[in-house]
Amino acid sequence: MPVWSKLPNVPFTPMILTILPWLTGIRPAQVDALQAVDEVYPRPILFIHSKDDPAIPSRHSEAMWTRHQDVFDLWVSSEAGHVGTYRLFSEEYTRRVSSFFAKL
C-alpha cells in the first residue's frame, strides 16, 4: 500500500485496510484476480506489465494470462516501473493496443 499512497506502512496500511471494507463494502482478502479473469473469459484481455514493477510483480499478470491464453494477450515490458510502460515505449504500446483492438 505505501507504493500507491506514499504513506509510511505503519500505521497507515493497517488503518486503511480496517477502514476500506466499511467505506467500500469490499474486503481485500476476498478479492481474487484469478477468479475474476475466469468470469471475464471468453472476452479478451490485454495485460501490459513491466517486469520491473515495484508495486505488483509481473508474475501476477502472467498467472492471469496463463489461465486463458487462447483469448488473453500479455506484453511484459522492462524498466517501466508501475504503470510506466506507455511513457517509456509509447510507439510499441500504441501498436500493441491498436493490434489488440483490431482483432476484436
UniProtKB/TrEMBL annotation:
InterPro entries linked: AB_hydrolase_fold (IPR029058)
GO molecular function term, any single one: hydrolase activity
Keyword annotations of the record: Hydrolase
SUPFAM superfamilies (UniProt xref): alpha/beta-Hydrolases (SSF53474)
Protein name: Alpha/beta hydrolase
